[in-house]
Design goal:
single chain; 219 residues; alpha+beta; 4-stranded antiparallel β-sheet; 4 helices; rod-shaped
């Protein structure tokens, strides 16, 4: 082994140190000799350590270090690849989620429109139904207050009141008012108007007969 400072063998340095210390050992007392030997031994250990230190190999050049460094690089490459793949998938996922959110917003808006349309239809249906009820009621009232050809008893078949022909009558129109139960023998009033829109006033206890006059409407 060589000392890095003197380039001399470590054993030669130790020998020189021992020779220089020889006269002192011969004259020294036993206790002092032991201290000198201890110092020489420590010096020898230091010189040996220096010699060993100069011969240790570079750890980075060892096969194990190179293998570990290669494995580390491979793991880092796999990590970077996995991270890149994750970021790509996350980007696609975010785009997909944004697309779903947009479609859901459109569906919600369309549902709101359908709800408004349904409400409008229901409102219209209610209005139509109310109108139909009004018309139906008016028609029923009109029908109840309309007299066709035939013989009718006032207070039983028709209500008392004034009635007028719904349209102009023809020349063959005949109407008559009779006492109820007289079977037409007790004539109260009658007429062959021959045209126009005649009217009659009917009261309880009377029968009314209309022939070829069309309909009569209560006024």
């Amino acid at each position: 082994m060589l000392n890095t400072e003197t380039n001399e063998p470590a054993g030669t340095q130790i020998k020189e140190v021992l020779e220089e210390a020889q006269p002192a050992r011969e004259k020294a007392k036993p206790g002092r000799k032991r201290r000198i030997f201890a110092a020489v031994a420590v010096l020898a250990l230091l010189v040996g350590a220096l010699g060993i230190g100069t011969t240790l190999p570079d750890p980075k050049s060892s096969d194990a270090y190179v293998a570990l460094a290669g494995e580390k690089a491979s793991v880092e490459s796999d990590r970077d690849s996995a991270k890149s793949s994750y970021e790509s998938m996350k980007s696609k996922y975010d785009t997909f989620q944004n697309g779903i959110a947009a479609r859901e917003a459109k569906v919600t808006a369309r549902e709101a429109e359908v709800g408004k349309a349904d409400a409008a239809v229901k409102t219209a249906d209610a209005a139509v139904k109310k109108r139909e009820e009004v018309v139906t009621g008016a028609e029923k009232t009109k029908a109840a207050n309309t007299i066709a050809d035939g013989t009718w008893t006032v207070g039983k078949d028709i209500e008392a009141g004034t009635y007028r022909a719904a349209a102009d009558v023809g020349s063959s129109c005949y109407w008559g008012i009779y006492a109820t139960g007289s079977n037409g023998s007790n004539i109260i009033d009658n007429d062959l108007p021959g045209g126009g829109r005649p009217s009659v006033a009917l009261s309880g206890g009377q029968d009314f007969k209309s022939s070829r006059c069309g309909k009569w409407e209560k006024q």
